[in-house]
Amino acid sequence: MSTPSHTLPQAPQGFLRKWVFSTDHKVIGLQYMFTSLLFLLLGGSLAMLIRWQLGFPGKALSFMGTLAPTGMPAGHMLPDFYHMLFTMHATIMIFFAVIPLLMGGFGNYVLPLMIGAEDMAFPRLNMMSYWTYFVSGVVILTSFFITSGAAKSGWFAYAPLSVVDATGQTYWIISLIIIGASSIMGSINFITTVLNLRAPGMTMFRMPMTVWAIFITSILLLLALPSLTVAVACLLMDRVAGTSFFMPAGLIINGSTLDRSGGQPLLWQHLFWFFGHPEVYIVIMPAMGIISDLISTFSRRPLFGYKAMVYSLLGIAGLSFVVWGHHMFVSGMNPTLGTTFMMSTMVIAVPSAIKTFNWLGTMWRGSIRFRAPMWCAVGFISMFIIGGLTGVFLAATPVDVYVHNTYFVIGHFHFMMVGGALFGIFGGLYYWFPKMFGRMMNDKIGSLHVILTFIFFNLVMYPMFVLGLAGEPRRLFDVAVYPTLAAMQPIRTFMSVNAFLLFGTQILFVVNFFWSMFKGAKAPNNPWEANSLEWTTTSPPPFYNYETVPTVYHGPYEYSIPNHRTDWQPQNQS
Amino acid sequence: MNFSIFLSGWLLKPSVSTFGPQIDSIYYVILWITGIIFVLTEAALVLFSILYRQKEGQKAHYTHGNTTVEIIWTTIPALLLVYMGITSQNLWSEMRQPALFPSKPTVIKVLAEQWIWHFRYPGPDGVFGTEDDIIVDNSFHVPLDQPIRFEVTAQDVIHGFYLPDLRVHQDAVPGLTSLVWLQANKTGAYDLRCTQFCGTNHYQMKGEMTVDTPQDYQAWLANSKAAAF
Q1: Three-state SS for B135?
Q2: Residues A399, B23: C-beta atoms closer than 8 Å
């Protein structure tokens, strides 16, 4: 490579400027990644406590008696502690673990590299976005330590319960307002970076699917989040200023009549789900993008139907704004709207189906290299199919009447959130780890981790469909009052045992991750023989990413070109 | 533990309301369609994983896709989904549009509060809000083979009025009265489960609906009336 004619920018030397208040997208990406991985661990631990109660109701967990003496005196869980667990499990997983990992972590680290940029468009805004996220994390963590405990009205915080609930809810609101601001900063940054900082030759239709997915997801976040912020701001006013956005007249709570009137509880639901449904696609779309790249790379085949993949992402994004009502089929919303939302929900399944078929089409006649990232991709497709197909039952209004708010729903969305988003996350971590740390993760342990996670996850989540179809409502602390449900206890215990095994399996990942970071085999620039730009620079990349601005000659999926010397063709080689 | 339930669990417990079998038949249509798609796609995934794994001297096939198959696998799911939507639509209207409800139903007002279900019957005069109204808590009765209309609301937070055996489900929202109906066709006692998280004792908010023969129902009404005085 020729000596560059200009002076390359150098990283700041001080520890604080280099690692803490950095404006380097790679450092910020790692900050996001490590913070959100900690939140992932916390969210997972809360899930284990939930599974403890469901699998072994009434059994004491002595160490929790010390950790949470008010919620679990002598290790015996109280109902409200359980309610706090499921509320915070969801809140932390969605807002503090999965979105920050996918967008803040992967988005920041790989997106500028993938489009051949030196950094994000607004490096300082990027730093501010991380630290804003950090502050909201502190607020939500603080709420665990206040007297009344963290929020416990469910992650969708239906009013009026969320209005009259204890102080933890206020912390929840404030932290969501703060993290909303953080996400908006990040989104603006991603959109601007993709639109303005692409390397010469990197046309929109030469961008890898990961970049497309993060770009489109940013637009979704930017449009959906204001609705959440408005909703929680109104909720805050209802709680502290005596307003009645969501409070109708004549409420009698705990025997006392409240002096409120004119509000509508359903208004909260509309505002929340107007954000909340794009939200679930915000969680899954970046994972879809990552998985698309993994499948093409490891199958050594061009992505099947690249443009169809891009258009289906755009289709999902557009439609995701007109399906929110399917969360409200039995809410008392006008039944005519139910029909409308059912049809739009049926339609949004089409682009997801297109994506699945194209992933299968990419594997067809490939030469598939089964490494840990590819195991993630295969697991992702397999569970995305289950998550998608069970969604059809929920979309059909008459059937939803039967399974709404039962474990069927819990099964469905965990196949999307864990089987989908989390497998995308693991896939991305295994795939980009060599680029981030300059060392390889152990692939045998990695593959084992993914396969065991797949097995145990299915054994935890699949039975939820069975419980749901038996009419078991979600969010029950104990099913003892319903003998027919109590009779199904062996299933719950079975699920819980598998949940603990699932959690334990993650030790494989943690050990592999940290051991490899310091002791793993040195990674070459392009260990996976992949085409996208990030693999053309060193592992890890220098502060300035690329010594000379790369020029892009073709799309990212030129694998196995006939009569070509190698079975890959990096984007910067003509 | 008996693992056969992981398959047999997809068969629904028989319903005891008039529109229950219709809901179930839509469920089974969807189960068949999604079941077949599930088997085909998962089989393809496994098959491709085995057939096209990396092998010595085998090179991947180079193609960027095929417009014809894209059109096929866009159109078929779209048609199936729209079909399932249209199939569901008529039944949904029949169940939910008050204008299409059966005429002359027995009307019961349901009021949910933390963590009790209250049921109000108009009493002998057939008019609500008079002295002879009958109010019962948690456990209530309805007559067999007659349309019942519920007017569901709540006085504090949102609750979920869910009668799984009758395929009836409606949130009880304060400040809003929602209408649902059912016609039970089998006598017996059926669970009423609260499905919308409503605070500390949500898990104990259980009710029970008993479907009586008309004679038993009248006897129960008379009894309840006597108990109220």
Answers
A1: strand
A2: yes
CATH topology assigned to domain B12-55+62-98: Helix Hairpins (1.10.287)
Interface test with A, best of B19, B47, B52 (most A CBs within 10 A): B52
List, by residue range, all CATH 1.10.287.90 domains of chain B: 12-55+62-98
Report the topology of domain A23-245+263-536: Cytochrome C Oxidase; Chain A (1.20.210)
Q: Is B203's Cβ below 8 Å from some Cβ in A?
A: yes
- The answer, for A292 touching chain B at a CB cutoff of 8 Å, is no
Q: Is the ipTM of this complex over 0.85?
A: yes
- Please identify among residues 87-146 of chain B the ones whose CB lies closer than 8 Å to any CB of chain A: 87-89, 91-93, 95-97, 113-114
Q: Is B25 on the interface with A (CB under 8 A)?
A: no
User: What is the pTM (predicted TM-score) of this model?
Assistant: 0.96
User: In angstroms, what CA-CA distances link A291 with A45, A279, A299, A367, A459?
Assistant: 26, 19, 12, 17, 23
Nearest CA in chain A to B58: A367
Residue B198 three-state SS? coil
- Pick the closest to residue A325 from A315, A313, A333, A317 (CA basis): A333
In the numeric block, the tokens 């380097």 are attached to: A24
Say if the Cβ atoms of B73 and A357 lie within 8 Å: yes
CATH number of B101-228: 2.60.40.420
What is the mean pLDDT of each successive set of 10 residues along chain A, which is 574 residues long? 64 88 96 98 98 96 93 95 97 97 97 97 97 98 95 96 95 97 97 98 97 98 95 97 95 91 95 95 96 97 96 96 96 94 94 96 96 98 97 96 97 96 97 97 98 98 97 96 96 97 98 97 97 96 94 96 93 92
Q: What are phi and psi of A347, to 5 degrees?
A: -65, -35
